[in-house]
Amino acid sequence: MQLEILTDDELNARICADYWRQTEEGEFALKIREIATAHGMKPHVVSKFVERHAFVWREDICCGRCKQPYRFGTRSQYQERRWFQNRICKACIDAERQAIADEKRGLILKMRQSAENNTPDPATLDLTSKIYLLAAIQALGDEQFTTIEPLDDYPTCTLSPDSVYDHKVLRHLIDNHLLLICLGTRLEAVELHEDDRFSVDLGECAFNLALDADHVTALVNEFFDEEIIQGVRQAPEFVALCKEVQLNECLGFLKTILEDHQLYLSPGEKTRQVISQCLEKFSVAQVYNFIWRATKDAAAYYMRSSISKRQAANSVVGNISRNMERAVANDWDVKPFHRNYNLPQSSLSRIIFNMVLGTDDGGFECPLHELIKQENPLSV
Ligand SMILES: [Zn+2]
C-alpha cells in the first residue's frame, strides 16, 4: 500500500500517517479512537479529515484499461478495494463515450454530405417521390419548409397508415437524396455494430429538405393546379400508389386487431396478396370487416382448441381469403366499418384521396375501381 500525503502541514501529515499505518500482518496499527485521542480530535471526524489530506493506492488495484491505480481516501473504501480490481475507471468510460459520440457524429456528417452532393433536379422528380415528400412535409414538417421532425415524436398514422410503411416512405426520400439527416439528430438514433457497420433508426432522425424553399413551394403548388392534377390521376404510377396506401391501411388495421386479441403475425407476401385481392372488389372499410371477423374467428379457434397462438394467427389470412370468396360468390352486401379511433387518416392518404382525387377519405370508403373509373372513363 502506497501513501500519498497532500498537505505540507506536518501535524496534519502525521495524523494521516497514523491513520494509514499498518502492522506487518496488514492490520491497521491504530484504532480511530486512539488517533482521535492522540491528536485531540473527535473520533467521527478523523476519517473525513484524513480523506481531505491523503490517499492510498496499490499497484494491483487499478483500472483494467489505463492501468491507473485507484485512490482510496478512507479505510472503509480501502477495505472494499477488491471490487475495484480491473474495473474500468470513470476517465476511461468518459473517453470511450466521447469516442462513440464522435464516431456517430462523423457518420451523420458523412451521410449528410453524400446526400448533399447528389441533390436531385426538381424538374426530374418522379410522382412517387413528389407525393411522399409532400406527405412528409405535411405530416412532420415545420412552418418554414426546412425541417422534418422525428417520426417517433408523432402519433401513429401521422405520415402513412402503417409504421412499416412510414419507414419505407422515409427510406425512399433518403435514397433519392431528398432528405438530409440533421446534424443535430439524437446520437441514440445511430447504433454502431461490429466490423465498422452501423444502423440508423429513421424514426429517431430529424431531416432537412434537400430542395430549397422555392422549389418546395413550387412542388406544393403543383398539387393545386387542376391541369397537372388531371394528369396525375391518369398515371399508372399514381394508381399503384393508391393501391399501396389502401393495402397498408388494411395491414395497419390487421396488426392492431391481432394485437387486441394478443395474436402476432408479421404480414408477408401471402397476406399482402390476399388483401390486395380483396381490395380489387371491396373498399378498405369493407376489408376491415373481413379482417375483424377473421381475427375474431382465429381467436375463438385458439380458445377452444389446443392449437398454438402462432397457428391461430396463421389461420387469419386463410379466413380472410375464404370470407371474401364467399362474399363474392353469394353476392353478399359486406357491411363497411368505420375508421378505427387509433388509426386516423394519414397525410399520405389525404394527399392521394382528398387532394388529388377530390374525395372525403374516399380511399377508405370506396373501392379503388370506383374512384379511378370516375376519373378515367376511357378505361371502362
Ligand atoms: Zn482507466
Residue-averaged pLDDT: 93
Helix vs. strand class? mainly alpha
Could you state the order of secondary-structure elements as H and E? Answer: EHHHEHHHEHEEEEHHHHHHHHH
Rg value: 34 Å
What oligomeric state is this?
single chain
Count of folded domains: 3
* Sheet with most strands: strand arrangement: 3-7-4
**Residues in helix, %:** 40-55%
Helical segment tally? 16
CA(first)-CA(last) distance: 94 Å
Beta-strand share of residues: 5-15%
If you had to describe this structure to a student in words, what would you say it looks like?
- The protein is mostly helical.
- The protein has 3 domains: 2-84, no CATH class; 96-222, no CATH class; 227-379, no CATH class.
- The protein is 54% helix and 6% strand.
- A 3-stranded antiparallel β-sheet has the order 3-7-4. Strands 1-2 form a two-stranded antiparallel ribbon. The protein has a two-stranded antiparallel sheet with strand order 5-6.
- Helix 1 (10-20) crosses helix 3 (46-53) and helix 11 (269-281) packs parallel to helix 13 (309-329).
- The chain is elongated and about 105 Å long.
- The N and C termini lie far apart (94 Å).
- Zinc ion binds next to helix 5.
